[in-house]
Design brief:
It is a single chain. This protein has seven helices and nine strands. It has a nine-stranded mixed β-sheet with strand order 3-2-4-5-1-6-7-8-9, with helices on both faces. A hairpin with a 2-residue loop joins β8 (177-192) and β9. The protein has helices spanning 2-7, 22-32, 72-78, 96-104, 119-130, 141-151, 209-227; strands spanning 12-16, 39-43, 55-59, 86-92, 109-115, 154-159, 162-172, 177-192, 195-202.
């Protein structure tokens, strides 16, 4: 499913606490992006080390002279004037949240990670982080949620290096709120000797943007997968 989502250009956020496997999964997904797609990856600390043949990997600059510092927010904003198809942020934890969502709302594919304890909290954290941008202080939470809901496609939530939820994100214009459609969940969870075990179960089928994007690219994806 995730390969179909990546090949269809879905915008994906991977959530979870620290050391839950978010970066490792993000690296794997980036490496599955078709080679003809150009990627710009931005990080505070270099961790991705992707082997994708068409990627530019950039890191923030911290200098004793603060005026010369280059922040993650600045790197993310600069992506809009670069020739790229996909924008990656290693970990969102500040004002770059708004820059990232703004960038992928223009047609770029986007992937990143964020610290949160469940998919619902991921939406709340994005709103909080977006408000760290001086411009976003003027926006209502409802407006920020609309930006998230109309831009983001999938939240993958992780725990203990396991995917525990895959959720489709959709904005309901009538209700004026974000809807979360749980697609897969890890059931019968047990922790044995510090490791998480369980069964990934199908909960629902994609209904909204994810369904449309996958159906649009399905024949091409199946043709590529046959070559594998």
């Amino acid at each position: 499913f995730l390969i179909y989502a990546i090949y269809s250009g879905c915008n994906i956020i991977i959530s979870g606490k620290g050391a839950s496997g978010k970066t490792k999964l993000l690296r794997t997904l980036i490496n599955k992006i078709p080679e003809n797609i150009s990627i710009t990856a931005n990080e505070e600390t270099a961790e991705l080390f992707s082997n994708h043949p068409n990627i530019i990997q950039r890191e923030i600059l911290q200098n004793r002279n603060e005026e010369k510092n280059i922040t993650l927010e600045q790197l993310t904003k600069q992506c809009l004037v670069m020739s790229n198809d996909a924008i990656v942020v290693g970990e969102i934890k500040g004002a770059e949240a708004l820059s990232f969502l703004d960038a992928i709302s223009t047609g770029h594919m986007g992937c990143d990670t964020i610290h949160s304890n469940n998919p619902e909290n991921t939406i709340n954290r994005l709103c909080v982080l977006m408000k760290k941008d001086k411009q976003a202080i003027l926006y209502t939470t409802q407006y920020l949620e609309k930006i998230i809901g109309t831009t983001l496609d999938i939240i993958i939530h992780m725990s203990n290096f396991k995917i525990v939820d895959i959720v489709e994100v959709y904005y309901d214009n009538k209700k004026e709120k974000i809807e979360l459609n749980y697609l897969y969940s890890l059931k019968k969870r047990n922790i044995i000797n510090g490791k998480l075990y369980g069964d990934i179960c199908v909960i629902n089928k994609p209904k909204y943007n994810v369904k449309e994007k996958i159906n649009l690219n399905k024949k091409e994806i199946e043709r590529i997968l046959k070559r594998w």
